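Page 37, top half.
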Amino acid sequence: MTSHAEEKTLFAAPPDACDAHFHVFGPIEKYPYESSQLRYAPPLAPLAEYLGLAKSLGLTRYVFVQPSAYGRDNSCMLDAMKDVGIAHCRGIVDIDENAPDSMLAGMHAIGVRGVRVNVSPVHPHQTGLAVSMIPRIKRLETRCAELGWHLDFLLPGWLTAELMPVLRALQVPFSMAHMGMNLARDGVDAPGFKALLDLVNSGDRLAYVKFTGIYRMSKITGFTDTDPLAKALIEAAPDRLIWGSDYPHLSFSENSSFELFNLLARWTTKDSVRRQILTDNPSRLFGF
């Protein structure tokens, strides 16, 4: 892979630019991961390495997201957040919906502002899964409302579609990772993507869409087939979009965070829109 020093950004990040979705992984002897049903072998991706990348990209705010490999043991991420400090970071955890109030209060104090609802993007269709998730989602919605947190969804596209009525009814802010896992090959007229466009402008406009994991939706060099989707979202709701590197890219480790960042230069030529995506919108959602 190309080193950070050899890669360049195509535009200057605005002040207080935020990476709204990335992961850290520590030494396995200190932070053991769940070995059953892992989709990837977690790499060693320490905080210092990530901060070097963020500096090269011009990013000064960071939103840690709990990786599935650690299950609901958030200790690696929380330790890293303490090292960074609440002035510059926020976190999205994976917790039991009935976790003690004291645990959530401790997390809030160091910058946690969201809870992840995570189902593998490649999970095959499973009858009844959406219905079985509703009690957890509703309970987490209540907890988030009490704390001023949001919900962060990573779901396969079919599950997003089945949960759409639940998402529309949410009374707390929420985000959809990886553009709702709408495959680029299906285009902007696909029912799932049209529903996503409608979701970001529905009701009190509580939905946010993450420009993350682009390599999950596209298999074309340069990801050019994602351009129509990204541009449609920018046209529909530029104030409800956020960007994340998805570092360290896990099973897509051959990808470059610089290339993913530079997609914003192709998707919009407006500095004002890039400032919304990188600074204004994450500031609103995460409470910077």
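Page 37, bottom half:
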Amino acid sequence: MNANHIESKFAAMGARLKVREIASRWRQGDRSWVSPRDFAVDIQRDGHGEFFELRVPTHLSESLDVAVMQAEPKQRHLLLAVRTEGTDAKLDRFLCGHDEREWFVAAVPGGASSVRQAMDALQPQDVRAALTRNHVSSRKRYARKNRAFRRQGEWFFVPEPSFVVDEKLILRNEPLRRGAGKPHLVEELHRSGGETVHVCRRHPNGVMPDEYRSILHRNPDAARWGWQVMRRNPGVYARGTVRHSDHATITLPFWHRVIMNTETQSRTMAHVAFLD
């Protein structure tokens, strides 16, 4: 891995990259050595500000091939590729860049080979359909605001001006979050449909009722993990202000359908340590 070459690509867009090898560590609780199983891409902070960090387990340091597939320095984005050699060879792609106030890492599904293709891959089908329906030009399709949507971080808000909600079913100042990330706070939110899941800190994306009962059967102490019953993948609509500490507040004057980007559809997501 040519770390200097990769670091220069990050520097060209005004960012820093640090590569850190992670060795096995002794875990006192069960008196055993714990080895990190895989690499991770993260956003960290030091006295000079934020930086990208690629953490590589020592046993993988010789079997990882890391390269920048394409860089757009003026846009402050690049597409990072990490290839794992050996019997379980695979290629993972990450869009690294700057959005509004902060640096970000996004796992990219599919076979993107350029920054533009990566950005296309992160737009869900319903968002791409809205872009076509509203005849949004290629120059504006990646903007945070156009005729097809408003965007804040990983969330797209597609206008639904004719949508009507019973006032009794509106949730106020409701958090909108992906996994264990920092929530986006929505002034008015409506959810419909979806599936019932049990959520706790150890299972932030939720488990189905059968799996929940299986967990409690295997480990009765799990009943004290602070579970909550929530709805996963419902139809979600937002109105009013949407706030997040890393993004400028947006205001939706009428109902918008809420759609998350496609990042979680990629197995590459397992290697992203930083969550918005």
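Margin note: The mean pLDDT is 89.
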